[in-house]
Amino acid sequence: MVTPQAPLNAGPDILGRRRFLSSAVLGTTATVITATTIGSVAPEAVADPKLDVEAGAPDPNFVEGRITGIAGGLLIVTGSDRTINQIHLTKATSVWKLRPTTSDAAKVGDGLYARGVRMPDGTLAADAIWLNIVNLQVHITSIGRSVMHMDHRGDRIVGHVVSGTTAAVYNSTPAVSDLSLLQVGRHAQVIGAWRPDTNEVDLATVYAAA
Amino acid sequence: MIEWLASTQQAVVGGVLVWASAFKLVHRNASAAARRSVLARITGKEHAVGAYRAVGVVEALIGLLLLAPPVLVVEAYAAAALSSCMLGYLAYGKVKAPDAGCGCLGDKEAPITARGFVRAGLLVALSLLAVAGSGWWPTERPLATIGLVVVELAVFAALSPELDHRWLFPLRRWRVRMSHPLAGTEVVVPLESTVQQLVKSTVYQSVVTQLSSDLLDHWDEGEWRLLAYAARTPSGPATAVFAVPRLAYRPDDVKMAMVPAEQEALV
């Protein structure tokens, strides 16, 4: 039984793919195939990822900026230094926007980090993109129902708690959904998804001492 | 009545000015606050502390004159002028150095907000009201006078972001301790905790160099949570799918299948 974890984008294709992959790893059906269910693959078998970037030079396989246009599977991204990049998304590209999601979540105006492979035509074939991701060191100034107000170097930030998604990590122990140990006045680190052009973020993970 | 109100304001305005000057002149963090304040942008860092102390001296002078008899109208005018300069200073800071604090009443760094303007505006208004006062400390209604002074000083404290840590945060902490607003959230196993467990597993560590993407997709299947990543293997692109125990911490039980992309295309 497949639980629809991401019903927003779980079309019949995705559910079929999940069923197939589930059976590949859990072996629930006999139809699987030559998938290598292995415990170990020698890392030496894979060539080291080439780090041929000179110190101080921009990494050609990384792009940051904001999406200024979307045209047929191609994202047009304007970097903070005004360089314009074109980014290809494929079925093998992971897309993060508060949670793992699909490429149709990318909207004009979103902030973006992308890692991938630079193609000969100058476009970036993305392996992974993160939309609106922020990582903030904050002080918790107040806690309300489903919101947390924070101070980030004098800027006020409103953090929205997203039920079922927001997690807390206390004292580096495994993440839990219980947020009731967060305290006003304490320091916290917050990973979240910025709501573009506001001072609001949806909270993904809050790291705090308890 | 107006006479009584006006005479009381001498004490309030004087009290606030002395409070502000005391911080600037004797607090051990005053020089650090000076260098962080808007004043440092006007005078330059090297003169900031001197200018800050000078402002403190002027505030102390006017404040003490207001508090002490005799009552001279010029004292109230001087306080009004000083508070108006304060308003101008805040406006300058808001425009030119929005990230710097005003350094007015405490060493806690707080950027200039509407509260600062209301506080300075209130000081101007009360100084002008004090102009109408003639008596030093009103002798009729002594209790009402003390009450009014206390209330007005409390309003100044409430308008001071520098003092929030003294009363506002403890109040909020107390309220959260009484009943935590976020205590009722749905109890689920967060995805983050499953990913943390996956990362600890030897299976994951043995193939991590082949994974090209971040988490592609995830779903629950009974006691398992499945996590899919794109991978680049020596034999071509593939999908790495991991099954991680969802309700227990057993990283050794993590299973993995590497499904070549061409097989997936058949689905």
Automatic annotation (TrEMBL), chain B:
The record, for InterPro entries, names: Methylamine_util_MauE (IPR009908)
Repeat: present as a keyword of the record? no
Where do the Methylamine utilisation protein MauE domain residues begin and end? 3-131
Keyword check for Lyase: no
One matching Pfam family is MauE
Keywords associated with the record: Membrane, Transmembrane, Transmembrane helix
Q: What is its main location?
A: membrane
Q: Where in the cell is it found?
A: Membrane
GO CC, sorted alphabetically, is:
membrane
- Bilayer-crossing residues are 6-26, 47-68, 74-92, 117-137
**The protein, known as:** Methylamine utilisation protein MauE domain-containing protein
The organism's lineage? Bacteria, Bacillati, Actinomycetota, Actinomycetes, Pseudonocardiales
